[in-house]
Amino acid sequence: MRRASARGLVPVLGTPVMINLIEAAALAAVERLLPPGHQSLGIHLDVRHFAATPIGMRVRATAELTAVDGRTLSFRVEARDDLEPIGDGTHQRVVVNVARFDQRVQRKLRPCARVTESKRAIAHRRNGDTAWTRQPRLKSRSTHWFRADLCSP
User: Fold this and answer.
1) Per-residue DSSP letter, 4
2) Mean pLDDT of residues grouped by 10 in the chain (153 residues)?
3) Which helix H or strand E contains 121, and what residues bound it?
4) CA within 20 to 30 Å of 29's CA: 55, 75, 88, 140, which one?
């Protein structure tokens, strides 16, 4: 349960906050049942947010496990404020072995050396600083610079 808080111009509970509560309810419903070294991760969410909740009103999310298909867990989810339902839908989570999942994520760091270098990145390299690489953003004129020294040699 959580009290509603807002970030926008309208003083009501935001949809991202409701979604966070729904995911937390699904996680809490199954995490104690998982084997050691395993965790569930959200893979699909289909929800409606159909009623406004004023700031300060309590909100409660529930998740009911409806199906287990291999490693995939399916839930029926609902969010309610003190007076009425405010959202509902379905949510799916997949059970992963944390160690193996982390290994896969770490492997994703290695390909970052394939990023195309810009003139500025090439200048950095000529000056002996090989850690800076440029990645253009899609449909944007701005550029995001990041350090590529996390890559394995």
Assistant:
1) -
2) 64 94 97 95 97 95 97 97 97 97 88 52 57 49 48 44
3) helix 119-126
4) 55
